[in-house]
Amino acid sequence: MAAPSSGNGSVARLTTTPTPVSRGRSEGQLSITDLRNLVKAGRIRTVLLAVPDLQGRLKGKWYDSQHFLKHIAHGGAEFCAYVLATDVDMSPVSGFPLASWETGYQDLAVSPALSTLRTLPWLEGTALVLGDAVSHDGAPITVAPRQILQGQMTRLARHGLHVKAGLETEFILYQGTYAEAAESGYQGLRPLSAENLDYALDHPPAADRFFRRLQRALAGAGLPVEAIKTEGAPGQVEVTFPYGGALTACDGHLLFKHAVRALGARAGLAPTFMAAPETGVCNGLHLHVSLWKNGISQFNEPGSGGLSQLARQAIAGLVDALPQLAPLYAPNVNSYKRLVPRSFAPTTLNWGYDNRTCAVRVVGHGEGLHLEIRVPGADANPYLALSAVLAAIDHGIEQQLTPCAAETGNAYETGGTAVPPTLQQALGAFQRSAIASKAFSAEVVEHYAHLARLEIDHHHRLVTDVERHRWLARA
Q1: Are 365 and 374 in contact (CB under 8 A)?
Q2: Rounded mean pLDDT of the chain?
Q3: In whole angstroms, what separates CA 465 from the centre of its chain?
Q4: What pTM value is reported for the model?
């Protein structure tokens, strides 16, 4: 594989003059007036309209900026509905009511969410806007990930509660390109660093360059990071984003992953967000969540500094419901290879104060008191993973549940309700779950159950290197 390049060319443009924006918006964020001015000045020539797909990737079209302003910004666009009804390979498959061979793979409408409009510093002269998938009569597509999250936020709003969230993600940087990794059969992958650099501040030059470019690019898109740190596995990186609105946090996460891949490719690196890219290596997506009312946190008990009754109900709901919702936060066969003892990924649903062996970790103080949900892997679709968390919290509040005692020791050894160990078992629990049906509707449950079945069927037919290594000479 090629060594990481020093990088130049288009990456250098990240240092150009900041984009002028309307009052009240941060650098990178645009109003439609800002976009018109930038297009007129020749600074924006392309606008990407994207929807989050089932796997949490950006899918959409490149538009000439003039065409976007004239026809798409307020008139919307049409995409083939299969962008929300396909597996990770984008294979046309039967079984999705939304779009399939049986329906003729019809179009759906995409309505630009103009509040998400922003520049993309890692793509020259380019802006991006996210879109909401709707039917041709304007009704939301209920199985769309962005719509599912908005639905869970609405359910909590009936209690007068507003969700704040912050996402913390891990990924591995490998040397070389994705094409080179494929040519080698994904064997002999070389992480960017060869040792445990957890909390290190003396990074290899290639890592230092990548971190600086990533930080600068995200800030230029209106997505400033809170922190970047190297993690415990070779080549592993963790990026944490500031607390904010739940939908905004998930929107930003997809742009963050897009930036990591784009900048990685230019630096001769192949980033991966697989939950378990190697045996014993785990990438998590930790969700930091709290509930607010009238600008006041509802998780801390005024005067005592402890957990409020609402927070305790939320914890009880998470412990009770998350085992039934696993396909939403652990969607792939590989997802479950992360959930092993002493991996800092939970194997049972339990909770504790500042305890990283627990699935739900209580952290922070005062109005900063919040819950860190550690079950999702980095491969999870953030909208779906956060939706599962909010549905579980709502369940705890609605049923006025009381949590078990907090774990004070090693939660890997104390038992509790197990996280499903395989996607097959997770699928069965999800399909049988009354909590899932109530929170998401039978239509949504079946849509994502079918996606899980496709993943299981794909792996069931494949003979792996591990099987040949174990059995070829012994069977």
Answers
A1: no
A2: 92
A3: 29
A4: 0.93
77 Cβ contact partners less than 8 Å away, ≥ 6 residues apart: 49, 61, 109, 110, 112, 131
Residues 101 and 218 in one domain: no
User: What is the domain range of residue 195?
Assistant: 154-469
Q: Tokens in use for 30?
A: 């645009």
Residue 3 lies in a domain: no
- If asked whether residues 116 and 234 sit together in one domain, one would say no
Q: pLDDT per residue over 346-401, tens digit each? A: 999 999 999 999 999 999 988 899 999 999 999 999 999 999 999 999 999 999 99
- Please list the residues that pair with 296 across neighbouring strands: 293
User: Per residue in 90-107, pLDDT tens?
Assistant: 999 989 999 888 888 999
Model pLDDT for residues 30-81, shown as the tens digit of each residue? 999 999 999 999 999 999 999 999 999 999 999 999 999 999 999 999 999 9
CA separation for the pair 404, 351 (Å, rounded): 8
Residues 120 and 173 in one domain: no
Residues 390 and 463 both lie in one domain: yes
- Tell me, what CATH number does 71's domain have? 3.10.20.70
State which H helix or E strand residue 384 sits in: helix 382-398
Please spell the DSSP secondary structure of 146-179, one letter per residue: HHHHHHHHHHHHTTT-EEEEEEEEEEEEEES-HH
Mean pLDDT of 261-279: 96
DSSP state of 369: -
Phi then psi dihedrals of residue 231, to 5 deg: -110, -170
Do 137 and 238 reside in the same domain of the chain? no
* Residue at 384 is within a domain: yes
- On whether residue 221 sits in a domain, the answer given is yes
What domain count does the chain have? 2
Distance CA 384, CA 124 (A): 31
Geometric angle at alpha carbon 355, from 352 and 360, rounded to 5°: 55
The mean pLDDT value for 182-211 works out to 92
